[in-house]
Amino acid sequence: MTASGFVTDNFGSMVFDESTMRSKLPKETYKMMQASLHYGKRLDPETASVVANAMKDWAIEKGATHYTHWFQPMTGITAEKHDSFISPTSDGKVIMEFSGKELVRGEPDASSFPSGGLRATFEARGYTAWDPTSFAFIKDNTLYIPTAFCSYGGEALDQKTPLLRSMEALNKQAVRVIRLFGNITDTHIKTTVGPEQEYFLIDQTHYKQRPDLRFTGRTLFGAKAPKGQEMDDHYFGTLKPRVKAFMAELDNELWKLGVLAKTEHNEAAPAQHELAPIFTTTNIACDHNQVTMDLMQKIARKHGLVCLLHEKPFLGVNGSGKHNNWSMTTNSGVNLLEPGETPYENAQFLLFLVAVIKAVDEYQDLLRISVASAGNDHRLGAHEAPPAVVSMFLGDELAAILDAIECGGAYDAKDREMMRIGVHVLPKFPKDSTDRNRTSPFAFTGNKFEFRMLGSSASPASANIVINTAVAQVLKEFADILEAADDFEAALHELIRETITRHKRILFNGNGYDANWINDAESRGLSNYRTTPEALRHYLDEKNVKLFVENKVFSETELSARKEITEENYCKVINIEALTMIDMVRTAILPAVSAYKKTLTDACISAKQFCTESDLPYEEETLGLLAKYSSAAYHSLRALEHSMKEDQKPTASEALAAYCSDTILPLMEELRCEIDAMEPLIPKDVWPYPTYADILFYE
Ligand code: ADP
Ligand code: MG
């Protein structure tokens, strides 16, 4: 078989997708499944039983012996509890069984998952509910059933539940809007996402020797290597054979699971890479991203590598993010952020465009919150990722069009290609002339928006919950106004114009890394929350609670639970990092420095016998420097240890998070500085850990 034939045959071979359903399900059942898939229709228990049985037979045929409800609790990773298909018979044998009930609902013990206080008010038990819109698949001889995870009282304990709710909120309002433009045939609007995933690959040997990487996913120490990313020779460079083999296996495994892995390349930093899938429906894209992150880590091990998904594994080179490409599509496949061919389509495009602008401006704090984590705080604001200030980039052409609409003036497109539009109230504009601006947090890229603030390790769900809900809210306000208007075109024009005037402060086409921009942003009234605790303080602001409650995405209780979970997680991460640091310094680094100081002291004595006045006393000087740094380091270590004492820490969750960011982190940074200053002074065989040069430039 040809390689391409192999790929096409293998693609989705482990997925109970539509084509498998068509061949395995009775016609009627298949139709019901389709309705459920595309229009969210509920399946009756009888149909579920038929589906369950067909799914089981197919899975057994493919070698599966177990099934699992696969869900995404608030741990950042996925969870699964495996049950086998076996069921005892009266004659002491077993048969393979899987009922509709088992497919539709599971009851894992929820008590060990983060619940943000929901557990205190409700029972410990939780339940998982099948999400028929994301296909079941087979991995490691187990049938994986994507599910939502809720408390017994129905409170969301996961990422999928609110994500599905937010997609439904957007669907409802977006359909109202397309109706106003005369579209009476489309019945459903989905949001689509293509998440580009960045990651590092390092050698397993180095990983094992670094407790910081093992416990925290990032290096807590490490002097800069002589070479970093300044030569730009890694970006899109030739792949190392081991990395190439890893990527080939990863692609192959992802394709079997129906994940549309498309592009694999080296990224800017040494040892950094990226995988971009082809976009798909948001909840599937999020599920696929989880599978991708999971497989990346497993397959790396098989190649003697370790995949680091942390946002900032190494100081001094770029960290990793996840670019969330986002749009909205009707069930007939029309991308609502694609500038159209007809006047009406163009007007509709502009309305959806300004809806996103307004949504991002009004809920900029929530967007920042949706990507907030201890890891991502190291990235946002460094000169590699968008700053912590949320702004939008439209490109010069589109910005000029919006200007012209706002001022009522003419738009001069010069000799660029024109789209055929003729509505007198809207100017003409050229097709696809958006530029790339890599520094913008939220950039329009021709027919979609790219939100670039997401951390590499987090589920893309959080960010999409906010984008979907915020846009749904704005579309609702727009639909309310336009449905009530006597003169639709005049009202539409006025609405677009007014939205631009009110929200243009969020538009910024310049360099987001420029220090002046931060001042400029402040004078525009944009928020700049540098740290997670600072951002989280605004989670429960009245307008934010209102947004989620009114759109039925989160109840107030669920929202405060999320705040608490994020805050708690932040504190735990800093706590583990600080303890790891203390341990590394106390048990390995300072002892090594001390031993080496003794070696130098001995050497000093013998060197002195041969020294002349003009000789530079290497041993003595190095000893002096080491004495200075190690004493400072010990001082910092003691301060850090003191700050970690329970009686020093505030107890309230918000205060503790602030303490972590304002007291513990700066002490950790100080300690790191002093340790990093000693590393280059000490022979490699004496330094207890692999260096940045070893880790980043492996073969
Ligand atoms: P680049 O940004 O490198 O030019 P593309 O524009 O082709 O690459 O796409 C980047 C990512 O955006 C890919 O994952 C792609 O599938 C995704 N994407 C493209 N169109 C859409 C869309 N309508 N909705 C969501 N994601 C999209
Ligand atoms: Mg991109």
Folded structure, characterized:
With 699 residues, this protein is of the alpha+beta class. It has three domains: 11-158, Ubiquitin-like (UB roll) (Roll), CATH 3.10.20; 166-554, Glutamine synthetase/guanido kinase, catalytic domain (Creatine Kinase, Chain A, domain 2), CATH 3.30.590.10; 569-696, Four Helix Bundle (Hemerythrin (Met), subunit A). The chain is built from 24 helices and 17 strands. Strands 9, 10, 11, 12, 13, 14, 15, 16 and 17 form a nine-stranded mixed beta sheet that branches. Strands 1, 2, 5, 6, 7 and 8 form a six-stranded mixed beta sheet that branches. It has a two-stranded antiparallel sheet with strand order 3-4. Helix 15 (396-407) links the parallel strand 15 and strand 16. Helix 10 (241-256) crosses helix 11 (282-302), helix 21 (556-610) packs antiparallel against helix 22 and helix 22 (618-643) runs antiparallel to helix 23 (653-678). The radius of gyration is 28 Å and the shape is globular. The chain starts with a helix and ends with a helix. The relative contact order is 0.10. Adenosine-5'-diphosphate (ADP) is lined by residues 192-194, 196, 276-279, 325-327, 335, 445, 447-448.
